[in-house]
Write a structure and sequence with these properties.
307 residues, 13 helices, elongated
Length: 307
């Protein structure tokens, strides 16, 4: 039989070391367990990432629809804030929960739909922040602290005319002085200005002052936050204002998305390191995914051989 026109198989395909034959793992079973375990973890992480992307997309779509219903599209930034506060103050009655302690307090769909959560400073502020962010406003959370570093109240800061203005979603107000000027936290550190701004707010507690505050409360972590604040302040003093930490810490779907992305990236790096170790130290060479895809496409689109 004539064999002149036949192509010989690529020598790499006959090499079990390159091909990934199970025989190559003999003597390296422990490494093999680690390798396949990393592959399974990577697959699980990829599936988790796909799920978290869908979850965050669903939450964002819900919030955009919600904010579009209560905030006029042509409103100015200040009018957008007032529209959200108006809804919180006099909008449709929300459902009272029979057991509010069991509600998911970091799920926007929950905080926007239960009366009790809109009456508590932390979750009311979260609801405001989510709606304001979906309306195109730049916002962040501000924690007011006691001298013992315990949270006494939670408010929001909204960037209006290049100034971070204080909004108190619990009391449904933008902080203003007697002349109607919008106030920042620096303004409210003045006792006279604070008294002037809060005197007309019904039942506003005088201890909700602004002497001590943070954007991220690391003291809530075990062992006093592992002294992370001191370390981070020494590296980058404005780290807690450099990004919107409230989005990460107070929206569960976004936090899960970030964790899934980070875990997938770390597992990909770890898998690459294991592959290099196998090739350079153990003599186990793998066919990369790109090579496999190339060979599969070549086999699929190459003309059939005539024997």
């Amino acid at each position: 039989m004539c064999t002149e026109g036949l192509q010989r198989p690529h020598p790499a395909l006959d090499n079990p070391v390159i091909r990934g034959d199970p025989l190559e793992w003999k003597g390296h079973r422990f490494f093999g367990v680690i390798w396949w375990s990393s592959n399974l973890l990577l697959l699980a992480s990829l599936l988790f990432m796909v799920y978290s992307i869908g979850w965050e997309f669903s939450v964002r779509s819900y919030l955009h629809g919600f904010s579009d219903a209560i905030v006029p599209a042509t409103a100015t930034p200040e009018q957008k804030v007032e529209s959200i506060l108006d809804w919180m103050r006099a909008g449709p009655p929300r459902t009272p929960a029979s057991g509010p302690t069991g509600l998911a307090q970091r799920d926007p769909k929950t905080t926007l739909n239960y009366e009790q959560l809109l009456s508590v400073c932390g979750t009311a502020t979260n609801a405001f922040l989510n709606l304001a962010r979906s309306s195109g406003l730049q916002v962040r959370r501000l924690l007011l602290l006691t001298p013992q570093n315990k949270t006494k109240h939670v408010v929001a800061e909204v960037l209006l005319d290049d100034r971070w203005i204080i909004v108190d979603p619990t009391y449904r107000v933008i902080m203003r002085d007697a002349k109607g000027r919008l106030l920042t936290r620096s303004d409210l550190q003045n006792p006279a200005t604070f008294s002037e701004a809060t005197s007309k707010i019904e039942d506003y507690r005088a201890e909700y002052s602004y002497e001590k505050f943070v954007h991220v409360r690391l003291a809530a972590l075990p062992l006093q936050g592992f002294h992370l604040r001191r370390l981070l302040n020494s590296i980058y003093p404005r780290w807690d204002q450099a990004m919107d930490w409230s989005l990460l810490l107070e929206r569960e779907s976004f936090m899960v998305l970030c964790l899934s992305l980070a875990s997938t990236a770390l597992l990909l790096i770890g898998r690459s390191v294991l592959g290099l170790y196998a090739a350079r130290k153990l003599g186990i060479r793998r066919v990369s995914l790109r090579q496999k895809a190339w060979r599969a496409s070549s086999a699929l689109f190459s003309p059939p051989e005539i024997k």
